[in-house]
Amino acid sequence: MTGEVWVWAEQRDGRLLGVSLEILGKGYQLAEKLGVGLAAVLLGEKVEGLARELIAYGAGKVYLVESPPPQALPERPLYQGHS
Predict the structure, then answer these.
(1) Among the residues of the chain, which ranges form H helices?
(2) Cα separation, 46 vs 43, whole angstroms
(3) Is the CB of residue 24 less than 8 Å from the CB of residue 40?
(4) Coil, helix or strand for 65?
(5) Per-residue pLDDT of the chain (83 residues; tens, 9 = 90+)
(6) Which CATH class is domain 4-66?
(7) Which residue in 10, 13, 15, 50 has the fewest CB atoms around it within 10 Å?
């Protein structure tokens, strides 16, 4: 089988969140079961070191998107469904 399992790696202030490593572990199990590679997706600014950390924890590759932190979210929801 070809393809990859992608795992979203979350970071705050230049540190990986623990849940990212937990999900990476589950992703590893799934990728092994499917016979495909495991990749992590990481967004942030100056987080190359975290990409290396994800590789050390089992990701075969990391898709790194260099991006500054997003602007503050709006005070009101962008969409609100009807109740």
Answers:
(1) 18-34, 48-56
(2) 10
(3) yes
(4) strand
(5) 689 999 999 998 889 999 999 999 999 999 999 999 999 999 988 899 999 999 999 999 999 998 777 666 566 666 667 76
(6) alpha beta
(7) 13
Q: Cα-atom radius of gyration of the chain, to the nearest Å?
A: 15
How many CB atoms are located within 10 Å of the residue 62 CB?
19
Going 27 to 29 to 34 to 39, the CA torsion angle's sign is positive
The pTM for the full model equals 0.77
**The two structure tokens encoding residue 56:** 């050390």
The confidence score (pLDDT) of residue 73 equals 58
47 burial type by CB count under 10 A (0-12 exposed, 13-18 middle, 19+ buried): buried
Strands 15-16 and 11-12: antiparallel
